[in-house]
Amino acid sequence: MKESFAYTFLDLYLTHSKEIHQQDSEYIVSGQERFVLYEIYRRYHEGIEPFNLFWIEKTLGLSFPTVKKMVKKFVGFGYIEIKQSLKDKRNKQLFPTNKLINGIEAFEALKESLIKKAISAEKNLLEFDKESVEIFTNDIKEYKKRIIK
């Protein structure tokens, strides 16, 4: 229980930490946008058929223009590709790019590392100090440099 709470807390903390997302325009803060990216990644990772814009619209209850704007943003960041479905030529499906795959895996590995350090040092997970946020922010920048190369 403690570890699952730690992962959830750390994810929420890092997602909404102003020190991190204000320094990085590509850092996704919106819960709906993060859900879409993680679902694209999950389907890729598990070999499940990719989804389309209509799925996002229906699942999240968003308007089609909002969905199109979100997807355009992801394409612009280089997180996803839109490809024509092999089954239905009218259907456009969303696929993750290496940048998204590597970014999610790096972010999850970093969270796991931070959680293990906190648990082994018996630190209170609610006590994230400014130094920890700076270290994490620098780690994110380093991961991005490696991903882009």
Brief account:
The protein has 149 residues and is mainly alpha-helical. 66% of the residues lie in helices and 7% in strands.
If you consult CATH, what is the topology? Arc Repressor Mutant, subunit A
> Which range does the strand content fall in?
5-15%
Helical region count? 7
CATH superfamily: Winged helix-like DNA-binding domain superfamily/Winged helix DNA-binding domain
Compute the separation of the termini in Å. 38 Å
Quaternary state, please? single chain
| Shape field | elongated
How confident is the prediction overall: mean pLDDT?
Answer: 78
Strand order of the largest sheet: 1-2
| Gross CATH architecture | Orthogonal Bundle
What is the percent of helical residues?
Answer: 55-70%
Task: Specify Rg, calculated over alpha carbons.
Answer: 17 Å
Summarize the helix and strand pattern as letters: HHHHHEEHH
Q: What structural class should be given to the helix and strand makeup?
A: mainly alpha
Number of strands: 2
**Class, according to the CATH hierarchy?**
Mainly Alpha
How many structural domains does the protein architecture include?
A: 1
Low-confidence stretches: none
* Largest sheet descriptor: 2 strands, antiparallel
